[in-house]
């Protein structure tokens, strides 16, 4: 079981950065919930949230939540401010494990791929949640709330979904997570009702090799494929 702590920055009396009608604490919670929802599609993942609503939590308590849970990974989500544009990622600027560096590399790269914004680089800083967590920890600053262009993107649910997707793809690659096998009661190829059997064609090829390749792929995914 991979235990992942999702930390939505700020909350409650601490709004975080504000600008362009947006509050950092709302955006971080929104993104973190999207990340958690997407990770539900993967096997062997336990999600632990530092908060799931609008409340204040001390930085040390956020780290303590992860330490008490014996988490494998800590992801802190923030929105930047102070003049600039784009995103950047942070790990602790003291001693870190090689895993921490590897996770930053892969997660940073996946976010770059998912959102087409300025890459401000992989950075290191002495942030409490990075310093006090005993497991690999990363903090992401997603765009600038006080930049009109960045804020316009942050107002789009679809863009927030893309941000979350980038984080998730990074975590999936970092930890080698596998998608859950579709658990719907009936398999897509066959549906039985009233004693009738319906088959669904998933491909038509002039070259038998291509048909065999698809059948092999389907079988690997657990579907009983046949070639006619
Ligand atoms: Zn912040």
UniProtKB/TrEMBL annotation:
Residue span, SPOR domain: 192-228
EC primary class: hydrolase
GO MF term set: N-acetylmuramoyl-L-alanine amidase activity; peptidoglycan binding
GO CC entries: outer membrane-bounded periplasmic space
Record's keyword terms, sorted: Hydrolase
Record-linked InterPro entries: MurNAc-LAA_cat, N-acetylmuramoyl_amidase_3, SPOR-like_dom, SPOR-like_sf
Origin: domain of life: Bacteria
Coiled coil: none
Listed Pfam families: Amidase_3, SPOR
Gene Ontology terms: biological process: peptidoglycan catabolic process
EC number from the UniProt entry: 3.5.1.28
Alphabetized PANTHER family for the sequence: N-ACETYLMURAMOYL-L-ALANINE AMIDASE, N-ACETYLMURAMOYL-L-ALANINE AMIDASE AMIC
UniProt name for this protein: N-acetylmuramoyl-L-alanine amidase
Source organism: Thermaerobacillus caldiproteolyticus
